[in-house]
Amino acid sequence: MNRVGDTEDLRRVESTAASEVGHGPRLAAAAAARRHGMLAGVLFVAASITSLPSTFLLDPGAPAITYVLIAMSVVIGIVCIRAPWDRISPIWLNLPPLLGTIHISLVVAMVDRLYTFQYLFVVIYVAYVFRDRLTVAAHVTAVYVAMLAPVVYDPEMAREAVREAALWIPTLGIAAAAIVYLREQLEARERTSQRFAREALAIASRLRAPEADAPLQTAPGRSFHHHPSERAEGDAGRAQQQRV
Amino acid sequence: MTPAVEPADPSWRSRRYGRLAGALFIVGAVATVPSSLLLEPEPPDAMFVLAGVAVACGVVCLLVPWERLSTAWLHVVPLAATVLVAAAMEIGHLSYGFLLVFVAVFAAYAFPDTRHLVAHLALMSATLLLAPLYESELAREAVRNALIAVPTLALTAGTVHYINGQLERRERHARALATEAIEISTRLRRDQ
Predict the structure, then answer these.
(1) Do A189 and B167 contact (CB within 8 A), yes or no?
(2) Are A223 and A215 in contact (CB under 8 A)?
(3) Measured between beta carbons, which residues in chain B are less than 8 angstroms from residue A185?
(4) Lesser CB count within 10 Å: N end or C end of chain B?
């Protein structure tokens, strides 16, 4: 292929990189916050709806508060779906799992211990959404505390509550740890590929015809390298490649 | 903390999931012991034999050379785990159905093909829904259990599967972009 064709190809790849890989960290964080907020909403609504059939088999029948709690969960879900997550601090993403934990503990206390199963949603959600392991651990601990709460308010069922917690606590902990581990592996691979793509594009940029040798731009006013440290990282990588 | 990056070839993937399965079998089995000791009435000894069988399955999963086997063999893992959980529900207590969480999360991760995941979820659902047949005294409780557990497992597995698919797609895209950029660089260098 001739040089003009290569330069066109390069511009196309740069453009794709700008939209898919090289977009600014702030934009990516906003999109992720929106996605995670919506996921929380969908989980609230879906968990409420799917718990409905089981309420008809409660013995004695489900108390009226059951349906109030289900409706509350649907409302929280809708609020989560509609909230402008991309315009508020990401710290607010801690609210849905906290509300979920409180809500499930209320259902367990007022309706039936069977709904302990739903803590699983909270654990899976936090393991996926929060990059900070300490935050994940804090939410999982909150779930554990809620799970052991029946020991305090229902001493007659304390032994049964402890037995169930003995099964649930490791199950949820392991599920969270497995998800965190696998997610981190995938993200690390993605970061490596992105860095590799950026370095390859930088090399291609230097090899281009002199007339087209302007700094690579992924979007108006934004260089392909996000940050001076990344540029330094790229230079270091190239130096290492040369040494090899 | 930055995790170490491992290669992404299919054999590595099989080995990773095989080892994960082994760890889940062992940890899942060990996790049931404290709960079994608190059961009233005490569970039969068969419950502890079952935990031993699960640990043995875990060790086998850790030792199997997954990279040399077809990926289809990974399907044996959730099948065996579902059978073990069904046996624990029959011998011990209905609450051991909770252990299907491990199976659902594993299947959601290990099988990118949605049809495979659905098949495993169907088997898990059948295990829970058929519990009233072998727990006739607790039939109503078993059905109630299943009605809450089946959708929870399905939603959990669906969520894990969806997000895992998104992450994999992004990773593939970044890899394709890097490959293309390298090809262009190579051509430009050759033309110089």
Answers:
(1) no
(2) yes
(3) 3, 5-6, 16
(4) N
